[in-house]
Amino acid sequence: MPTIEECAAFLRERDGYLILTHKRPDGDTLGCAAALCHALRRLGKRASLCPNPDITEHFLPFVAPYLGESGEGETVLSVDIAEPKLFPAGFAGGPVELAIDHHPTNSGFARRTLLWAEKAACGEIVLELIEAMMGGLTPEEADALYMAVSTDCGCFQYGNTNAAVHRAAAKLLDYGAHVAALNKALFRSSSPARLRLEGQIFSTMRTYHQDEISVVVVTREMLAACGATEDDTDDLANLAGRMRGNRITITVQEQADGRVHGSVRTDGSVNATKICARFGGGGHVRASGCTVDLSAQELAAGLLEAVEQAMA
After folding, report:
1. What is the Cα–Cα distance from 58 to 282, expressed in whole angstroms?
2. Last residue of a domain, one of 140, 160, 187
3. Which of 58, 167, 187, 272 sees the fewest Cβ atoms within 10 Å?
């Protein structure tokens, strides 16, 4: 695996960058891509983010200045992507020259892989990479990477939060990240439709094993009834975990393309990666996902059975 200095040297040498974010992009992949794109442009490089139709209105303002018009580039980079099936639909194809990732399940698809699986967020890696490449960050880059690290840790409330990610956040504050405004926009602002959707989720949630397991199914019908869009579904996977006594949360959501996405969140006592691997997915020990061609109820039942077997 290349060192951070070797990756920085590689980025200084090349040009014509296309940066990939993953399907159903979250704040980590988008924040990493935006910060890296901004830094590369500071170097005088041509750089843009690959079009990704899954970007929601919630995150669009943070990445709009960096979005390209095509899915082609001379030098393709990926951030926070573990395997090719997670490439965005806007990608025209071609070899990935450098993958920057923190998923232990990374398949090694790129010609070069900077993989630090011990990191809570990919944003921590990109922070060190930009420092090695540029000597420091601008406030714009700090904002993007604060979004990356804070969203992947649930505003530093999830089980993956550790001392290292707090140190990274503190460094981003020193670089000028606008934390108060970011926290308000990312964690304390919800649309009326989102609040109605949360009400439906809590009213239909099922629990098992003395409330240690929570199962949530989000259907297209529920979204329509609440007047909700994809922009209102961010971070639903962690919603049911707020219930006292919960250890494992299973969230299943019907997608617009007819497929079904499942997410498993655990306290670490059950390996979420192994659970989702049964359905072709993966991720982290405490947080993993999968997308399948089953019905929502079938996937929910299958994930519950896998969790119960792992707990036995």
Report:
1. 25
2. 187
3. 167
